[in-house]
Amino acid sequence: MGKKKSLERWALRWHSKNRLDGISEHFMVDDCLPLFFRTRNLARIYCNCRFGYIKHRKDLRTEPHGWRVPRAIKVRITIEELP
User: Fold this and answer.
1) For position 82, what pLDDT does the model report?
2) C-alpha–C-alpha distance, residues 56 and 47, integer Å
3) Pairing of the two strands 33-34 and 4-18
4) Are the C-beta atoms of 78 and 6 separated by less than 8 Å?
5) Which pLDDT score, from 0 to 100, does residue 1 have?
6) Looking at residues 42-61, what average pLDDT do you find?
7) Rounded Cα distance, 29 and 12, in Å
8) Selection from 32, 71, 23, 66 nearest residue 51 by Cα
9) How many CB atoms within 10 Å of residue 74?
10) What is the rounded average pLDDT of the residues 31-39?
11) How far is 16 from 62, CA to CA, in rounded Å?
């Protein structure tokens, strides 16, 4: 078994709920890579700058979209060397 390293970071989780698709949740990515932040505050600042408009758009929060503002969540990232 190879070396293993774990660290904790903050990520953004997308959430939407509508009749057509049901509940949809996933980690936010940028250029095919997951977004990780060192602190919760940095994650929230990024979220408010990039997705804060959703708070003020009732048309996006209701059907058919059901969007919600992404939330900052704490995650554990584990990196393991493979043989």
Assistant:
1) 87
2) 14
3) unpaired
4) yes
5) 65
6) 95
7) 9
8) 71
9) 10
10) 96
11) 10
